[in-house]
Amino acid sequence: MNLGRLLRRPIGIDNGEGAPRYPVKEALARMRCIIYRGDKRECSCCGRAFSLFLFSPYMTARCPNCLSMERYRLLCRYLRDETDFGSEEISLLDVAPTWEFQEFCRSYENVEYVSIDIASPLAMLHMDIRDLDFDDSRFDRIICYHVIEHIDDDMKALRELYRVLKPGGWAIIQVPILIDKTVERSELTEEEAEEILKYEDHLRGYGRDFADLLETAGFDVEVLPFVKRFTPEEIERYGLDETEDLYLCRK
Ligand SMILES: [Zn+2]
């Protein structure tokens, strides 16, 4: 077994909720925390401070401890600073989970955390976002980060997210916004697709009309330029994504 697969492999006992622990990954994180000890950078997901963020081949600056990316640090910062996250009992659905956000949610006792993915071993349940095996109005909160651009029938997926969200609840649904008007890969030449979409598994490039799509699925949408409230020095210290507005979707 190669090292990557070993690190992703669930080893050990789950926490009683079906979410596996990753002792090898956690041991490596402890080691990186020692190497990168310092106080110049601060991760909003795990709350720890470091001398530097890690450089990654995807041009993102990852947290030495929890490996969070800029957009997840921005999300955790938003949830912590601007919402009632953690102050009341809520159920949260995380679509296509990441380790850092799973750990962030687990740190709040009153958050019932449920994660799904079509195949990821990190996910608690495997299911298709276009056909969710949940009752209507099951969740108070939904987080769906950079998933919809991979789904062939995006409206079906969005309508499913709307269906399982409780009335009065809200979701944050993010995609890369690349252009003015959303375009399908099938409408682009190979050269255009390479230039606009960049990644082979992105089925479309979303534009600023993404909010309209969310509204068609049923949501009331507010586009929040949350990152704009931070100074350049704070953006560097907290390693936040400067490019993403947050799409807050209420039901
Ligand atoms: Zn972190």
Helices and strands in order:
Elements: H1 3-8, H2 23-35, E1 41-42, E2 49-50, E3 54-55, E4 61-62, H3 70-82, E5 90-95, H4 99-106, E6 111-117, E7 125-126, E8 139-145, H5 154-164, E9 165-174, E10 177-179, E11 183-184, H6 190-196, E12 204-207, H7 210-216, E13 220-224, H8 232-238, E14 246-250
Parallel strand pairs: 5-6, 5-8, 6-7, 8-9, 10-12
Antiparallel strand pairs: 1-2, 3-4, 9-14, 11-12, 13-14
The structure holds zinc ion.
Question: How does this structure look, described?
Answer:
By secondary structure, this protein is an alpha/beta fold. It has a single domain, classed as Rossmann fold, CATH 3.40.50. It is 29% helix and 24% strand. It is built from 8 helices and 14 strands. The protein has a 7-stranded mixed beta sheet, sandwiched between helices. The structure holds zinc ion. Zinc ion (ZN) binds next to loops.
